[in-house]
Amino acid sequence: MVTGVGVDLSHISTISEVKGFCGNDQIEEALTGCDLVIIPAGIPRKPGMTRDDLFKINAGIVRDLVQSVAKYCPNAILNIISNPVNSTVPIAAEVMKKNDCYDPKKILGVTTLDVMRAKTFVAALRPEDIKDVTMCDVPVVGGHAGTTIIPLLSQVTPKLSKPFEGEELTALVTRIQNAGTEVVDAKAGAGSATLSMALAAENMATSCLRAMSGEKGIVECAYVASEVIPELAFFASKCELGENGVEKVLGCGEMDSYEKVQVSNAVAELKSSIDKGVEFANA
Ligand SMILES: NC(=O)C1=CN([C@@H]2O[C@H](COP(=O)(O)OP(=O)(O)OC[C@H]3O[C@@H](n4cnc5c(N)ncnc54)[C@H](O)[C@@H]3O)[C@@H](O)[C@H]2O)C=CC1
Ligand SMILES: O=C([O-])CC(=O)C(=O)O
């Protein structure tokens, strides 16, 4: 459940929760009239699993829920949280296409938690530059699994007096990429990062709602339909949000050579995850 603080969240429907205690007739009631639908439904990882291991179960859950969205609120903006995000977002897009209500601006894979983690770790390592983590920004691009999570540490704001380099850089990138796995391992079978995901979802939903109500200049990283990497129909990068979802995909900005290699190395895995989602939705 999302609570509104300083913003009216009354249009949010956390449909996994609705599904948790009711049947399809209540899904209709929950979705009808919704402007923004957050989908966190599905099973979480257990230690030893990749996010892609969740595909077998979560792909069908997301497909069916998005089918209901197409039926009851086809103009809603979707925030997709269920893993594997790299595949569930393409699934959502295909379902909307099949129902003649696809708008690429309106489907956003939630990668906000990667940005929150990157900011937190950067602030902890550079307290002399970052007194307040909320004032720090770290774009995270690519996707939401393993090495497809690519923090652009050369673009941290405020500008760092000592940039990350060498072993410190690689250790930090690895920590950000494995942060979800760290939580899964620590919870030892009891789930994944449910609470921090809820905060990330609330941040993203609030940004969407502010933009939907006309506020300008709201920028969030999200995994969306994009042309940033020509081979990839979906890619996470900075997006300017607007009244209808993604107003403009802003892309990766000026990356350094290390980041460019990381992006290039992620292309094959992202392509395969996207193709897998598209094939599943059309099977
Ligand atoms: N994108 C991101 O940053 C993150 C994504 N996740 C993903 O979010 C998903 C949920 O994770 P948690 O909330 O931790 O798991 P959880 O087990 O705490 O909650 C999952 C919820 O999904 C519901 N659900 C299961 N099957 C459903 C169906 N067929 N229809 C509707 N609802 C259904 C369950 O009733 C439950 O309420 C997982 O796939 C997880 O990997 C988790 C953390 C971060
Ligand atoms: O790691 C997981 O399975 C859940 C997730 O996506 C995250 O915490 O980033």
Please mark out the parts with pLDDT under 50 across 5 or more consecutive residues, or reply none.
1-22
Total of helices:
8
Please write the CATH class name of the largest domain: Alpha Beta
The N- to C-terminal Cα distance equals 33 Å
Count up the domains.
2
Radius of gyration: 18 Å
Cofactors, ions and other ligands in the entry: 1,4-dihydronicotinamide adenine dinucleotide, oxaloacetate ion
The overall pLDDT average reads 91
Instruction: Kindly report the spatial arrangement of strands forming the biggest sheet.
Output: 1-2-3-4
Task: Provide the β-strand percentage band.
Answer: 15-25%
Specify the structural class.
alpha/beta
GO biological process, one term: tricarboxylic acid cycle
GO molecular function: L-malate dehydrogenase (NAD+) activity
Catalytic activity: (S)-malate + NAD(+) = oxaloacetate + NADH + H(+)
Binding site for substrate: 45, 51, 83, 117
Q: Could you please describe the fold and organization of this structure?
A:
The protein is α/β, with parallel strands linked by helices and 283 residues long. It has two domains: 2-110, Rossmann fold, CATH 3.40.50.720; 112-273, L-2-Hydroxyisocaproate Dehydrogenase, Chain A, domain 2 (Alpha-Beta Complex). Helices cover 45% and strands 16% of the residues. The chain contains eight helices and nine strands. The protein has helices at residues 15-21, 24-31, 55-72, 85-98, 112-125, 166-187, 194-212, 257-282; strands at 12-14, 36-39, 77-80, 107-109, 140-142, 149-151, 218-225, 234-242, 245-251. The strands form three sheets. Strands 1-2-3-4 form a four-stranded parallel beta sheet, with helices on both faces. The chain has a three-stranded antiparallel beta sheet with strand order 7-8-9. Strand 5 (140-142) and strand 6 form a beta hairpin. The longest helix has 26 residues, at 257-282. The radius of gyration is 18 Å and the shape is globular. It starts with 11 loop residues before the first strand and ends with a helix. Residues 1-22 have low confidence and may be disordered. The site of oxaloacetate ion has 11 residues, from helix 6. Residues 16, 19-20, 40-42, 44-45, 54, 58, 61, 81-83, 85, 110, 113, 144, 191-194, 197, 200 line the site of 1,4-dihydronicotinamide adenine dinucleotide (NAI).
